[in-house]
Write a structure and sequence with these properties.
mainly alpha, 291 residues, 77% helix
Length: 291
């Protein structure tokens, strides 16, 4: 007599499926321990040391270091650079994302490639490019000297270098989202008589606002923390062309550890605020209600 085949119970298979797919407890806990150990060793520990060294000689020494003229000048220059570059890159990012996702034109792939260029070029090389273009021996150096225009070793050079380094951030946040959204809602608004500008403000902007804020946040953090490209074009002139990251290096090389770590604590605080805002914006974007 042949064996009777037992019928398969689908409910029993579903019940046991999660257990089969789950890793063993020791694997999960090992991976979690490795991740937490890495974060603690390479992120939390250095951050804690920065704060400790900044206040190692007391709060009075900390505030004294931050209130020095060179430090205040570095903070002001850093803020000025961010205030100029972030709005410009925001406008560029929105325009580039709109053009790439809504139109077909010759050179579209080239534009997409150029947007990614700062990600593939070393910041130091980026700074050297501006020196070769606008330096005293550069392509436009003679004309700039004749007209008494200073770009390299001056504020305009710092802004240009930072602008180049940070311009992909907003565009790269918007392009994938706008491609996923499609243009059906915008076409519907246009068919109902809305102008292009009104369609952007009433339809497109509400759909991309969280991604836009996320890109602006990342752009601002990079603009205020950029070192390599700015170091090449700044000339390290105290009180004039030193941004906050450069000021940290100068104080550290001068063995002014309190001054160096006090300035670094501002950048560390910016990183923490950026992290929390980034997390909040990611949560908002992931849980945004359908428009």
């Amino acid at each position: 007599m042949s064996a009777v085949t037992q019928p398969i119970n689908p409910a029993r298979l579903v019940e046991h499926q999660p257990r089969v797919l789950q890793d063993a407890d020791w694997v999960r806990w090992s991976l979690i321990a490795i991740a937490l150990g890495f974060i603690g060793l390479f992120i939390c520990l250095p951050l804690g040391l920065v704060i400790y060294q900044a206040f190692s000689k007391g709060i009075a020494a900390y505030w004294s270091a931050l209130s020095q003229d060179d430090t205040l000048a570095a903070i002001n220059l850093t803020l000025l650079t961010a205030l100029v570059t972030v709005p410009l890159n925001t406008v560029f990012g929105v325009a580039a994302a709109w053009a790439i996702t809504r139109f077909e034109f010759t050179g579209k792939s080239l534009l997409t490639t150029l947007i990614d260029l700062p990600f593939s070029v070393s910041p130091v090389i980026s700074g050297l490019i501006f020196v070769l273009m606008f330096g005293a021996q550069g392509w436009f150096g003679e004309w700039l000297n004749e007209h008494d225009v200073k770009i390299i070793y001056a504020v305009p050079g710092i802004i240009l270098a930072t602008l180049f380094i940070t311009f992909p951030f907003v565009a790269r946040q918007l392009i994938p989202l706008m491609q996923e959204m499609g243009n059906q809602e915008e076409e519907a608004a246009l068919s109902l008589g809305a102008s292009g500008l009104k369609t952007f403000w009433a339809v497109t902007l509400p759909n991309i606002k969280w991604a836009l804020l996320y890109g602006v946040l990342l752009c601002n953090a990079r603009a205020m923390g950029e070192f390599g490209a700015v170091s090449v074009v700044s000339g390290h002139i105290r009180g004039m062309t030193n941004t906050l990251p450069l000021h940290v290096e100068i104080n550290y090389n001068d063995y002014n550890l309190v001054g160096a770590f006090a300035s670094a604590s501002i950048l560390a605080g910016l990183a923490i605020v950026t992290l929390f805002l980034k997390t909040a914006l990611e949560w908002k974007q992931a849980n945004r209600s359908p428009q």
